Automatic annotation (TrEMBL):
Species per Swiss-Prot/TrEMBL record: Polytolypa hystricis (strain UAMH7299)
Protein name in the entry: Uncharacterized protein
Domain of life from the UniProt record: Eukaryota
Length: 122
């Protein structure tokens, strides 16, 4: 494995890693129906305005337009990526954020490590 300093970002490899992770989880214990695929071109409600609302780069917004683990907003049914840490369903959260329903807490959207699309609103 090359040292971290020699690695470069690959959009396609990153998306493939999300697909692999979600497939692994579906094979292990998730119902396949909780993995939701975006329409061609990504989720229509994740737009340039989303970039402004979240303060993210175009690269991050592009990744947010990829597949998700469905969020029912029912705490008893939500899929945990780690104990107490839920997958963020951005296609469902973005409308709530853009209308001001959700706001960052102490300048952060995350209540746990945001790696691999894991996060919790709080």
């Amino acid at each position: 494995m090359p040292p971290l300093s020699e690695l470069t970002y690959s959009h396609d490899a990153c998306i493939a890693a999300f697909h692999d992770c979600y497939s692994f989880l579906a094979n292990m214990y998730l119902d396949e129906s909780v993995v939701i695929e975006p329409p061609e071109g990504g989720w229509p409600n994740i737009t340039a305005a989303t970039k402004k609302d979240l303060g993210k780069t175009e690269t991050v917004i592009s990744l947010l337009r990829q597949p998700y683990i469905r969020n029912t907003f029912n705490i008893l049914e939500r899929v945990q990526g780690a104990p107490g840490c839920y997958f963020a369903d951005w296609q469902a959260l973005v409308p709530l954020i853009s209308t001001g329903y959700f706001r960052p807490f102490r300048g952060r959207w995350w209540t746990c490590t945001p790696h691999f699309g894991l996060g919790a609103m709080g």
